[in-house]
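Limitations

Structures in this collection are predictions, not experimental determinations, and the ligand pose is part of the prediction. Treat each record accordingly. The example that follows, with phenylalanine as the small molecule, is included so readers can see exactly what is and is not provided: the inputs are given verbatim, and the output is the predicted complex.
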Amino acid sequence: MQQHHHERVSFGSKIGAILAAAGSAVGLGNIWRFPYETGNHGGAAFILIYLGCVFIFGLPIMMAEFTIGRRSKASTGGAYRVLAPGTPWKWVGYLGVLTGFLILGYYTVVAGWTLEYIFQAATLGFSGKSPNDFITMFQHFSQDPLRPLIWLFIFMFATHFIVVRGVKDGIEKSSKVMMPVLFILVVLLAICSLTLPGAEKGVEFLLKPDFSKVTADVFLGAMGQAFFSLSLGMGCLSTYASYFGKDTRLGHTAMSVGVIDTCVAVLAGLIIFPAAFAVGIQPDAGPSLIFITLPNVFQQAFAGVPVLSYVCSVAFYVLLALAALTSTISLHEVSTAFLHEKFGFTRTRAASLVTTGSLLIGVVSSLALGEWSTYTIAGMNVFDALDYLTAKIMLPVSGMFAALFVGWVLDRKIVRGEATNYGTLKSSYYPLYILILKFVAPIGIVLIFVNELGLLG
Ligand code: PHE
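Predicted complex:
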């Protein structure tokens, strides 16, 4: 591996590191995917299983990724080669890079939609529309051969621009500005939504479990969602961890990221469901929930106060765009850092290659929703197929390998050293952490897969 000879760049502060990692985690997964998965899988019961997945699988695997990244001081594509030279483990790293690259392509399509919706909301494009108008508006827009592509390009260039500025001045600085703004917006919007008459029904849907809806599919959904939402299983966080300083506490950072991510997801639910129930809309609208249901909800809910519906709509889509941007940056960084380290390209050159490649995937997945929707893989259009393949299969698989690697292969002294900052921190959870990495997480992931295959077959 052609390692860089200069000192590795690092985040400037511990809080910067936490915010960057939380920025990666908090994204469309929390505000777009989590509410519709919850809506489709029966509300509170899904959330409970999801929380179980976050704490039992998610956080220990996040720690494992942090360990791999900080110890190797290499991006995920090179980390396994540094830690286990000459073994096939390097393929796990490459799988991670590929997964991230594929996700970046279709993720940026949806990220681009948020820009169209900011534009529509800000130019009064929502006012006076009926529920049906919103359906047509979304269908026309997402199936249009050109308009979504323009936003896709704009979003990708914004991402590119920040990544090119580097780890400290680009990624860390932008996260430090965007994350607090994002947090304030989620809280304010949730308060607005909760004060609507009839909001209790939405809260009940989110907090009162109905276990009759729980099937194996719900487990797979919850696990896929946990991996996706925490940015696990593709080396995003291990790449970021390679920029962590020596005194960054890995356990504390993982816990902070997990808690922030879960809070934002639940708050997003508290924005969407109370508002949807308040105007009598069913919560299981699927992926279009926030692009069809929600604009309509804002219109109706604050019908008496147009200013409020205007401000809420704009604020919501700005929130969504910010959340998406901190995530596309992290996805982009995985491939950029890999090309930069492995082939010795400058960051700018590496980033340009990544941008070009992922734009191609983006264009194909965007067109797959309109013009090219007749091309299908296993009955899904290319966009849905990419989402299924990456979130439900590739992320859990490579997450499982990360757990196995740190649990079984990596020298125990290194694992313990990284978890305790070489003896300076307490390690009361250490045995439990190892137990989960060695057995619980891998077996759990395999069981969920077997079950799913059984269902399919
Ligand atoms: N965690 C991000 C979200 O919730 C998506 C993501 C997945 C980002 C994997 C990076 C890596 O939207």
